[in-house]
Automatic annotation (TrEMBL):
This is DivIVA domain-containing protein. It comes from Pseudonocardia alaniniphila. Keywords: Coiled coil. PANTHER family: SLR0848 PROTEIN. Residues 220-251 are annotated as: Disordered. The lineage of its organism: Bacteria, Bacillati, Actinomycetota, Actinomycetes, Pseudonocardiales.
Length: 251
């Protein structure tokens, strides 16, 4: 960077020198000291960095560098394509290998599953046969026991029937005694009903006789009370259709 500053300083000094130079009359030219100008130009040349020369070299070799870069890019692309094709081939080979291994493993698993399924079916059939045979044996045993129990119950029923038949006379006597007791009870009920009816009839007769006597007494009292004639202002006849015999009180 200091060399760049030096270039700027030399250029500024050169510009100042030209601006302050003595002009040529009737023209736009000027007279500058040759030595000072050359000295400033030498300073500028010395202060210019070497990168400018390198840049100029690069510019001069531009086409060559572009061709080299294109060749290198083509070589890199070709190499990358070759590597990609190799990697693709390896990947396809690896994939095919993995598919083959997976297929072989699947076939092994399928074969094992079939074997296990066949063994399970065989075991199931064997267990089914054993259970069926055992159930048949138990059914036969239960049927035999049921027949024996049925025969025993039939024998017991027949014996009980015979025992009940042997007690028929006792039952008949008991029924006759029960019928006799029922008849006696009916007779006793009829007797009590007749006695009750007689008692009620007697009481009603007594009540009727008492009422008759009371009516007669009332009738005589009224007759005697009205025998001398009704008092002044009293009605001469019996009102409301009463007979005056005492029977009009029974209504």
């Amino acid at each position: 960077m200091p060399s760049v500053y030096r270039v700027f300083e030399s250029l500024d000094a050169l510009v100042t020198l030209v601006e302050e130079a003595r002009g040529v009359p009737m023209t736009s030219n000027c007279v500058v000291p040759r030595g000072d100008v050359l000295e400033l130009l030498d300073d500028v040349r010395e202060a210019l960095p070497g990168e400018l020369d390198d840049a100029q070299d690069v510019l001069d070799r531009r086409d060559e560098l572009v061709d080299d870069a294109a060749q290198e890019a083509e070589q890199t692309r070709s190499t990358a394509q070759t590597d990609a094709e190799e990697m693709l081939a390896e990947a396809q080979s690896e994939a095919e290998r993995m598919v083959a291994e997976a297929r072989a493993e699947a076939e092994q698993l399928l074969a094992k599953a079939r074997h296990d399924a066949e063994r399970a079916v065989t075991d199931g059939r064997r267990q089914y046969t054993e259970l069926t045979d055992r159930a048949q044996i138990d059914a036969d045993r239960l049927a035999h026991a049921g027949r024996a129990a049925h025969d025993r119950y039939v024998a017991d029923g027949q014996a009980e029937q015979a025992r009940l038949v042997s007690q028929t006379e006792v039952v008949r006597a008991a029924n006759a005694e029960a019928a006799r007791i029922v008849d006696e009870a009916d007779s006793e009920v009829d007797r009590l009903r007749q006695e009750c009816d007689g008692y009620v009839d007697a009481k009603l007769a007594e009540f009727e006789d008492t009422l008759t006597k009371a009516l007669r007494t009332v009738s005589r009292g009224r007759t005697q009370m009205w025998r001398g004639g009704p008092p002044s202002g009293a009605p001469t006849g019996l009102s409301n259709g009463r007979s005056g015999t005492g029977m009009d009180l029974i209504e």
